[in-house]
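Budget justification aside, the reviewers requested a transparent look at the raw inputs and outputs of the sequence design task funded under Objective 1. We therefore reproduce one unedited record. The lines immediately below are the C-alpha cells for a 270-residue chain.
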C-alpha cells in the first residue's frame, strides 16, 4: 500500500503527464524525471533515518554525530545525513578551522547544517546564523538546541551588507548561500571589514547572470580566490547502501541542484 509520500508523488506525476502535449518535449520529461528523483531521495532519507535507530543523525563528514531533523528547509536531506553534502568544501573548511576563528557568520543558514555543524566542530566559537525565512530561523534554533549549542548559535533575519562592520578585526569565516542575492550581501565597498575575513560563497549565475565574475572582481584586490566546482562524490557510503542499486546510490548523494553553482573560497591576502 502506498504511503502518503508516494501517493503525493504519484499525484504530481499525474498532473505533469496530464498537462503534456501529444508529443512531450525534453523539458516535460525533465520535470517528470526531477519529480520522481526527488521522491526517491525522500524515500532514501527515510530509510537512512531507520538505519540510525529512527532518529536522524549525520553519519559522515566533518559534522558526523550531529543530530538532525526529518525534513530540510531547503534542498535534499539525505546528502546531509550521509555527510556528503557539499563535500567539495570539506578540505577548505578544515583548513580555515585550523587557522583559528573567533566567529562564523552564516548568511542563508536554512535549517542550520553549517551553523550548528560548525558550532559543534569549533568549541568556543560564536556562530551568527541568518536567514530571511522565519521557518528556517525557527528550525535552526531547534537544531542548535537539539545539539546542545544554542548558547553559541545566534539566529537572526536579514543580514545587511554593512553588518559585517560589527565584526571588524575578528578572525571570521563568512558563509553565504543566498540563492542569487550574494552580490547584494557581499559589498566590500560598503563594508571594508570583509577584507580581513575568510569568505565561502555559493554563486548562482543560474539566477543572476554574472554573479561569479562580479564577486571575483570585487574580492580580487584583497583575497586569494579559489573556484570550487561540484564534483563526483567519492566518500564511502554506509554499508547498508551497498545492497541498493546504483541509481539509488547516485540519488542518495544528489543535492537537487538545477545547474552549476560553483563556490568561491576566498582567503585574505597576507
Amino acid at each position: 500500500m502506498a504511503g502518503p509520500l508516494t501517493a503525493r508523488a504519484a499525484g504530481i506525476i499525474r498532473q505533469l503527464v496530464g498537462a503534456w502535449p501529444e508529443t512531450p518535449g525534453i523539458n516535460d520529461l525533465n520535470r517528470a524525471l526531477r519529480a520522481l528523483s526527488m521522491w526517491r531521495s525522500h524515500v532514501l532519507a527515510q530509510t537512512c533515518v531507520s538505519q540510525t535507530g529512527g532518529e536522524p543523525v549525520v553519519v559522515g563528514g566533518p559534522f558526523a554525530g550531529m543530530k538532525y531533523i526529518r525534513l530540510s528547509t531547503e534542498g535534499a536531506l539525505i546528502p546531509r545525513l550521509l555527510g556528503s553534502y557539499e563535500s567539495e568544501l570539506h578540505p577548505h573548511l578544515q583548513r580555515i578551522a585550523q587557522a583559528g576563528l573567533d566567529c562564523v557568520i552564516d548568511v542563508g543558514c536554512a535549517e542550520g547544517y553549517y551553523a550548528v555543524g560548525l558550532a559543534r566542530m569549533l568549541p568556543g566559537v560564536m556562530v551568527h546564523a541568518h536567514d530571511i525565512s522565519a521557518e528556517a530561523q525557527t528550525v535552526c534554533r531547534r537544531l542548535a538546541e537539539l545539539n546542545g549549542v544554542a548558547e553559541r548559535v545566534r539566529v537572526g533575519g536579514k543580514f545587511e551588507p554593512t553588518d559585517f562592520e560589527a565584526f571588524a578585526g575578528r578572525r571570521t569565516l563568512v558563509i553565504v548561500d543566498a540563492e542569487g542575492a550574494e552580490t547584494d550581501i557581499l559589498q566590500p565597498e560598503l563594508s571594508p571589514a570583509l577584507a580581513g575575513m575568510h569568505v565561502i560563497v555559493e554563486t548562482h549565475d543560474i539566477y543572476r547572470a554574472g554573479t561569479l565574475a562580479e564577486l571575483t572582481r570585487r574580492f580580487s584586490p584583497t583575497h586569494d580566490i579559489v573556484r570550487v566546482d561540484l564534483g563526483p562524490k567519492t566518500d564511502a557510503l554506509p554499508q547498508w547502501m551497498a545492497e541498493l542499486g546504483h541509481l539509488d546510490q547516485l540519488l542518495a548523494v544528489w543535492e537537487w541542484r538545477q545547474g552549476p553553482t560553483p563556490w568561491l573560497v576566498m582567503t585574505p591576502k597576507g
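The chain is about 35% helix and 15% strand. Strands lie at 103-107, 126-130, 153-156, 172-176, 198-202, 223-228, 263-268. Computational costs for records of this kind are itemized in the attached budget.
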